[in-house]
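Q: Here's a chain of 460 amino acids. Please give me its 3D structure as tokens.
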Amino acid sequence: MDARKVYFVSLGCPKNQVDTEVMLGVVRDGGHAVVDSAEDADTLVVNTCGFIEAAKEESIDTILELAQAKQGTDKTLVVAGCLSQRYPTELADEMPEVDHFLGSADMLGLAKVLGGGGKRLGVSALSKRAYLYDHETPRELTGVRHTAYVKIAEGCDRPCGFCIIPKLRGSQRSRSVFSVVQEVHALVEAGTKEVCLVAQDLTRYGTDLETKTNLEQLLDALVEIDGLEWIRLHYAYPSAVTDGLIERIAMQPKIATYLDVPMQHVDTDVLKVMRRGYTERAVIELTDKLRQAKTHAGQRLWLRTTMLVGHPGETPEAYARLEEFVARGDIDHLGVFPWSREDGTVSAMQPKRVDEAIAAERAAKLMQMQESIRAERHAAMVGQKIRVLVDGPSSESELLLDGRHEGQAPEIDGKVVLTDGTAQRGDMVMATITQASAHDLVASLDPDAAAEAIEDARDS
């Protein structure tokens, strides 16, 4: 069959982005081409998200848009990812315009689609043996090359009442330390400076392998890779963050002093209904440990978390406990989401529902509180020198550069705007903070320190 021209739309989380990049690798290795518009393509692929209602709606809207682009042509439409996995039969019955469905573990099935001539593909069932990409899997990074997501495990065994992920992604399946290290080696050789380790639960990494390992052992192996600057950790389960992990984050220079820990709530009764397996005391103790950790650079450890408000059983008193916790100012980056009823979850059957308008008000209030906390914290940083990874030209002006300091993950935690545009994308430079807002920082490049940092990076 002739080479195909493929157009992609990728929705959802960084884990989904990795899956899309695997499918891009399939396109590349098959001798096909990726194009930038649906009109120029003969194969249309959307990698969907099915986590919450808003994500499902966005996915459906995107499918319908691509179906419209397909109408009256011989284009092939492929729907992949979590929405396919969640509703395989319903989508296949209700969307005849879709030619193939691929589930959350079916990325390599795209090769069959591009090969042509086959029957309509459907979603594969998930199990402990379901597909998980490794260092030998073809993968094509999207966007910049100096930062990359690396998925170290797939699926989840946690019983959280509000979460549909185990049904979308399957059981916990970890990659070997060897596989992860090999992939990161290859990424660094291709120019990557920062890897963001992602999994549904980093802290259960390795527990399912025949030769058991853990996140700490993986990190000990990764820090030995020359040329790797930052290892960033996303999605650690609150009750499973060990003292050894905190010590590594605080004291190992190659591990960013940053941890993403989705706490979801602080009130013990709400946490029990959520089936989280820990209490308010555990949340407070973990937060205190993270705040008190002394890092190698003398700075504090940066904490990102998410909170879920309006969950069934969240009384005004329970919400007040959460508000009190946020007001402590221990959180650097906060996401707040109103609970949405998701079919197939335990929480969907729980009584004592919270009115949607009240849940939205609570979410807005917490975010407003956090904005004030961030504004105060950022203002106190003016005059400090920070290490910045340059992401590239600023969207605000071609004379400026966008970058991030150690406490900022890609796209979600704000940015550092550099007023000197002489550095290059992927450079690690030193800069002095000159202005601050609740969201971003403005900094001027320190020429001498920048040159020294770049030289150090080349020598490492």
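Q: Can you summarize the key feature?
A: The mean pLDDT is 92.
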